[in-house]
Amino acid sequence: MIHTIADTHTHTVVSGHAYSTLTENLKAASERGLRFLGSTEHTGLMPHAAHEYYFTNMGVVPDELFGVHLLRGCEVNIIGNDGELDVSDKILSKLEWVIASMHIPVYQPSDFDGHTSAWMGVLKNPQVDVLGHPGDGRYVFDYETVIKACGEYGKIVEINSHSFGNRPGSTENCRTIALLCKKYGIPVVVNSDAHFWASIGEHTNALRMLEEIDFPEELIVNADYRRFADLITEKTGRIFE
Ligand SMILES: [Zn+2]
Ligand SMILES: [Zn+2]
Question: The Polymerase/histidinol phosphatase N-terminal domain covers which part of the protein (predicted)?
Answer without folding.
Answer: 6-80
